[in-house]
Amino acid sequence: MEMVDDDGLTRTGTVWTATTHAITAVIGSGVLALPWSVAQMGWVFGPLALVACAYVTYYTAILLCDCYRTPDPVKGRRNHTYMDVVRSCLGPRDVFICAIAQYVMLWGTMIGYTIVASTSMMSVERSNCVHKHGHGADCRASGNLYMIIFGVAEIVLSQCPSLEKVTFISVVAAVMSVAYSLIGLGLCAGKFASHRAARGTVSGVKVGGVGGVSATTKTWHSFQALGNIAFAYTYSMLLVEIQDTLKSSPPENQTMKRASLYGIGVTAIFYISLGCVGYAAFGNDAPGNVLTGFYEPFWLVDIANVAVLVHLVGAYQVYGQPIYAKYEEWLAKKWPHAGFIHKLYTVPLPFSKSHSFKFTLCKLLLRTVFVALTTLIAMMLPFFNAIMGLLGSVAFWPLTVYFPVTIYISQANVKRGERRWLALQGLSAVALLVSLLAAVGSVADIAQRLKHVALFKSEL
Question: Which positions fall inside the Amino acid transporter transmembrane domain (predicted)?
Fold first, then answer.
């Protein structure tokens, strides 16, 4: 018999379902840019950034786990979303700022995932072409059709009622993320072993000379690399929504802390390994998407890219469902009697007498329009690394550090001026600096690319 929680809802989530949601949310397209990111900063600052961002993400996640219920972390009132936590602990001004940062980040990630999904499909087409016709053949591929196909698939999946109802998709996505990370790591390890020496330098991509870049480009790319790494670990803006799927026994904060440890721990192992081994394999010539640097064995490269695609299909919904839930909740409160929003339609599913598809016209139409708009923007701006860096800069300080730290200070009554308060504020200041540098580097790179790339033209 299913237990009903104190708010009248039935929750079935466990540490393992939460871990799969966490891994699906954290291990995403950002992992593919890590060798390139390490290459921009070199053997000292690259690995250091990977370790530091992992620790900061885990530490602030632990702080946030205790704020799901307020004022008491075990018996207090539930906060169903990240913004609910901010509202309970801070106030309306912070809620507004949080809303902008969180939903821009979630939507931006969906745009980024559409770009990466098309890149993976283009990579499969190109690797098969090279294998069949040789490296001298013209094997360029266009991504617009693939973005449209991916968008249509997400329109269908967007009709799932809630995040809890996409657990199976999330489990499959988590498995796929581990699969392509392992394949990418294996391919990089094989390439590294083939030349029997670690490539790369202490300072990364060199300035000037043959094969070098200008000092300005080096600076922008280094800042952008920081954003890529920060984006790769971004997790806090979905933590509360994931925690809201958990059963209340044992206490949700205990379960979520374990899930965060497992999810971020697995992620950090993959990220540090792939970032460093990928840099050792390619050196300063590491590609922006590491899988595009391989053509053989073509079948294994294809499997990795298909795994990326399957993962992104599920991860897209993990990021999209909170957006759908928020604007549909607002519309329902704004027009409580509108049939367009509230009237439920039921369509029996073929080959199943016990299941049916239930929807409202609002849900069917608005989710479709939202995914279509997301796909259109991705087709306009297909800049993988620059988009990843910009997303990282948008999310890292406010969502991953500032709000969790500030909420925890309020929840735990940390006094201004005491040692713990100073340490937390120092962490927030450093994270702000990282976010600003990453934003500057990414915007500069996007501006530079727009001078040489036509809109709606994605090629590999």
Answer: 11-445
- Tell me which amino acid residue 134 is: G
Strands (E), 268-375: 345-348, 356-359
The tokens for 335 are 């027009």
pLDDT digits (tens, 9 = 90+) for 185-198: 999 999 988 887 88
Which are the contacts of 57, defined by CB distance < 8 A and separation ≥ 6?
26, 233, 234, 235, 236, 264, 400
- Residue 256 burial (CB < 10 Å; 0-12/13-18/19+)? buried
Q: CA-CA distance, 452 to 250, in Å (whole number)?
A: 56
Amino acid in the structure at residue 332 = A
Domain ranges of the chain: 15-334+363-450
Tell me: the pLDDT tens digits for 95-121? 888 888 878 878 888 888 898 888 888
Cα separation, 340 vs 56, whole angstroms = 44
Q: Are 213 and 207 in contact (CB under 8 A)?
A: yes
Contact between residue 292 and residue 459 where contact means Cβ atoms under 8 Å apart: no
Question: Quick one: pLDDT at residue 278?
Answer: 93
**Residues with Cβ < 8 Å from 422, sequence gap 6 or more?**
none
Q: What is the pTM of this model?
A: 0.78
Domain 15-334+363-450: top CATH class: mainly alpha
User: What's the distance, CA 232 to chain centroid?
Assistant: 6
Do 275 and 119 form a contact (C-beta atoms < 8 A)? no
Q: Are 34 and 269 in contact (CB under 8 A)?
A: no
Q: What is the DSSP letter of 66?
A: T
DSSP state, residue 76: S
The CB-based long-range contact list for 156-161 (8 Å cut-off, 24+ gap) reads 157/313, 157/316, 157/317, 158/317, 158/320, 158/324, 158/367, 158/368, 158/370, 158/371, 159/357, 159/359, 159/363, 159/364, 159/367, 160/317, 160/321, 161/358
What is the enclosing helix (H) or strand (E) of 78? strand 77-78
Inter-helix orientation angle 92-133/82-89, to 10°: 160
Q: Any residues with CB less than 8 A from the CB of 83 and at least 6 apart, and which? A: 95, 98, 99, 102, 326
Q: Spell out the residues 6+ positions from residue 361 whose beta carbon is closer than 8 angstroms to its own.
A: 340, 341, 343, 345
Could you identify the residue written with the tokens 């632990």? Answer: 62
